[in-house]
Write a structure and sequence with these properties.
This protein is an alpha+beta fold. It has 17 helices and 14 strands. Strands 2-1-10-11-7-6 form a six-stranded mixed beta sheet, with no helix packed on it. A four-stranded mixed beta sheet has the order 5-8-9-12. The protein has a two-stranded antiparallel ribbon with strand order 3-4.
């Protein structure tokens, strides 16, 4: 089948899916004022594939078939670098600065292919391969539901007062299983075609009911998407140049005794593989994360430079110091992202994954530095980020003369010009969207503590600990 056009993508979302928003069921997400915006935002992944400038990167031609590069199974560092480049282009196209639609699901598919290739029963790998081809050939968008409700976080899944705090199998049939639970933070699910469900952690030997991985169409009966209303405020294009056009939806995803047929089950009670699958997914997903953050950190540095110039302080010593820090922050992230691809590790089925040590250092570097980078930009910009005029003020014949007179910048910079950049920085750093980005920096694609654990684990597993201890011991004469 040919790749979907943006219009075909939007039409394909009218499939009876059960989406709830502020207590109301939404019949058609494409016409909803908030979710429709998110769907049109996600369609950028489809429009980029049609753009002659980007088509060679966005589309793979293989054995007479054309398909999205997102579905190219990485077998080399070059494949990972091209994937990262496509993610960066799509994220910056149209000034989105948040992830789109095809990246997350393919991260999970690659993890499933790698893990099931090593399992004793080949049926799981065959099912994943069939699902991969189904999504690739139909040019589908796939969401991933991994984080559970968790309840008492000190207790294991099997020790919870309510066993449904982690999604689990509640009934086993000859033709499949019935699952129950809620997954949190499911990005882009309202405008995806399928959802992949993965375990969120390692499981104990007695936790087979919680060791389940599968995929289902979004419109499966009993699958309910409870969409977050965060950031659904006014959309004045002058005040909100980003969020008036772009949106990423998050849902609490409820599986209310949902039937999963056998051919869509990829893990079913194999407790040892549950943790491996969870970790393998984040190997790929954190690489996606740092790739789509590259335009964001570049934008912060660019904003600081432009507004410093407009404010007439670009030559100040303290501003130069902030520039150096912002440049270093962005370029270290880019270098680590590229190095994670170049240091890729082989998987048993012939594919490769980004180097776990490097990609987790990259993600940790981004997460720990983001709030400080925002602080620098806000300090350079000034208080007009939150005290400046609204769109209606500019439209008022009585008020506008005062704005054009008093809000000018250095010589040659008009009030309109200065406030346009100020409003972009406001939307990026000081709005609901800005708060969303700051929370994402801490929690999305894994928490700060999760990244630290992975850095420590990967360094030891990769022989780093033996290397540095051996070096120190030898040099000390021990």
């Amino acid at each position: 089948m040919p790749l979907m056009s943006p219009a075909q993508y939007l039409e394909s979302l009218k499939d009876g899916r059960e989406v709830w928003y502020r207590g109301q069921r939404i019949d058609d997400i494409t016409t909803h004022p908030v979710m429709g915006k998110a769907a049109r935002h996600a369609a950028i992944d489809y429009s980029v594939a049609e753009d002659p400038e980007h088509e060679a990167l966005a589309v793979v031609e293989e054995n007479g078939q054309r398909y999205s590069r997102y579905y190219k199974i990485p077998t080399s560092a070059e494949d990972l670098l091209k994937r990262s480049a496509l993610i960066e282009i799509c994220t910056s196209e149209g000034d989105t600065l948040v992830t789109l639609i095809k990246e997350i699901g393919t991260d999970a598919i690659f993890a499933l292919l790698a893990v099931t290739a090593e399992m004793d029963d080949p049926i799981y790998h065959e099912r994943v391969q069939a699902f991969y081809e189904h999504c690739r050939d139909n040019d589908f968008a796939v969401a991933v539901a991994q984080s559970d409700a968790k309840g008492d976080r000190v207790k294991r899944p099997s020790a919870q007062a309510d066993p449904d705090m982690y999604l689990r199998v509640v009934e086993r049939r000859d033709d499949g299983v019935v699952v129950r639970g809620m997954k949190l933070h499911t990005s882009i699910s309202t405008n995806a075609h399928e959802v992949i469900v993965l375990p969120t952690r390692a499981m104990g030997e007695s936790e087979g009911d919680w060791s389940i991985a599968f995929a289902l169409p979004i419109n499966t009966p009993g699958l309910k998407l409870l969409a977050s209303p965060f950031g659904d405020g006014p959309d004045e294009p002058g005040e909100h140049p980003i969020t008036s056009k772009h949106k990423m939806m998050e849902t609490m995803t409820v599986f209310d005794d949902v039937f999963v047929p056998n051919d869509r089950i990829f893990l079913n009670g194999e407790t040892a593989e549950a943790g491996t699958l969870a970790l393998t997914f984040v190997e790929y997903h954190r690489f996606t994360a740092v790739s789509y953050k590259l335009p964001l950190v570049d934008a912060l540095g660019g904003c600081a430079a432009v507004i410093a110039d407009y404010n007439g302080i670009i030559g100040a010593g303290h501003v130069r110091e902030k520039f150096v820090e912002l440049i270093s922050y962005a370029e270290i992230l880019r270098a680590l992202t590229e190095k994670a691809a170049e240091r890729c590790i082989p998987k048993p089925n012939g594919q490769v994954a980004p180097d776990p040590l490097t990609v987790n250092i990259a993600k940790s570097h981004f997460a720990h530095g983001y709030h400080r980078a925002v602080q620098h930009v806000q300090e350079i910009a000034g208080g007009l980020l939150v005290t400046g005029p609204g769109d209606e003020d500019w439209e008022s014949e009585e008020i506008r003369p005062f704005l054009t007179k008093y809000l000018v910048g250095r010589d040659g910079v008009s009030a309109e010009q200065r406030m346009k950049m100020m409003n972009f920085i406001r939307d990026l750093t000081s709005s609901d969207y800005g708060g969303y980005q700051e929370v994402l920096a801490i929690h999305a694609e894994g928490s700060l503590e999760a990244e630290k654990l992975q850095i420590f684990r990967a360094f030891n597993q990769g022989g780093g600990a033996r290397r540095v201890v051996g070096l120190a011991s030898r040099m000390a004469g021990l």
